[in-house]
Amino acid sequence: MVKRTGPHRVGVVVFDGVKLLDVAGPSEVFSEANRMGAKYELSVCSVGGTEVVSSTGLRISVDVDAAREDLRFDTLLVMGGDRLPTHPIPEPLVSAVRGLAGRSTRVCSICTGAFILADAGLLSGRRATTHWQHTKLLGSAYSDIAVEPDAIFVRDRQTYTSAGVTAGIDLALALLEEDHGEDLARRVAQSLVVFLQRPGGQSQFSPTLQGPRPHTPVLRAVFDAVAADPAGEHSVPQLAALAAVSPRHLTRLFKEELGTTPARYVDAIRFDTAKAALESGHTVSEAAERAGYGNSESLRRTFIARLGVSPRAYQQRFRFARRSDAALTT
């Protein structure tokens, strides 16, 4: 905890297409902290100092030009946007962030804002994270970054990166705790009705299996068989016999097209089946049986190892969302 007399200057970097919740979530944490006696001074910055249009179409007013060379911040927050991972990032934005980072005590990105930091060379040789949908892309596009795909946020020296969207709130609370201690951070979290430390990592929000169906007919046959009966006996020899190929050939096809093994694929199908069963309201024992885990204890160990939460905690978190969706459509 750092004692200070003057305001803590926070720079919030925005741009056209910025994710509105990336901006609003952390900003509200600091604003709520101010209502409880903290002294954060937020300045919204954009290249050129002009207002920007957010991802929702709402406009965000801007306080200052991000390219000004006399700007200095105690904390720099670089926000995310949907286009950042897949489209060229404007050089003026990258250059402005690089300059601001050099004049800021700590540098943070929210969600896909990590791609701006990466383009600016600010994550080279560091650990980092981003939204779970883009962690693989971040790691492949910038091989000198040690990407931590399950982290809600990562601190590497004075550089901080957060996972997607609402994880920016988690990061802001961690920064608040660093500045003012756990008590104030907890009071702010309680006021905003969020966890001070969210249970589990961001992988609990992502599907285990991602991407389209395989192109190879052999693999499609295997996929269909496992999906139809996740709890069945799916050894590599049995799957190979089903597809009328050798076990070695099947393993090679999985590696070449999917980058995994048959056993890992079966395990992923079973895990997603268990999650879906829990989300649908089945008991932990029923979910374990449907997914082929044998018993609830085996499923519990798997959940703890993969997600950092128990099956029951996962169900309480995600079954509510399913019930809410159903209520909205009736």
Overview of the molecule:
With 330 residues, the protein is of the alpha/beta class. It has 2 domains: 8-202, Rossmann fold (3-Layer(aba) Sandwich); 217-328, Arc Repressor Mutant, subunit A (Orthogonal Bundle). 47% of the residues lie in helices and 13% in strands. The protein contains 13 helices and 11 strands. The protein has helices at 20-35, 91-102, 114-119, 135-141, 167-180, 182-192, 217-228, 236-243, 247-258, 262-279, 284-291, 296-307, 311-328, and strands at 8-13, 40-46, 52-53, 59-60, 64-65, 73-78, 104-109, 127-128, 146-147, 153-156, 159-162. A 7-stranded mixed sheet has the order 5-2-1-6-7-11-10, with helices on both faces. The chain has a two-stranded antiparallel ribbon with strand order 3-4. Helix 4 links the parallel strand 8 (127-128) and strand 9. The longest helix has 18 residues, at 262-279. The chain is globular.
**Strand content of the residues, in percent?**
5-15%
Spatial extent as radius of gyration: 23 Å
Shape: globular
Q: What is the typical, i.e. mean, pLDDT?
A: 89
**Largest sheet composition:** 7 strands, mixed
CATH superfamily of the largest domain: Class I glutamine amidotransferase (GATase) domain
Given this structure, which CATH class of the largest domain is correct? Answer: Alpha Beta
Order of helices and strands: EHEEEEEHEHEHEEEHHHHHHHHH
Number of helices: 13
> How many domain regions?
2
The CATH topology label of the largest domain is Rossmann fold
Helical content band? 40-55%
Class derived from helix and strand content: alpha/beta
CATH architecture of the largest domain: 3-Layer(aba) Sandwich
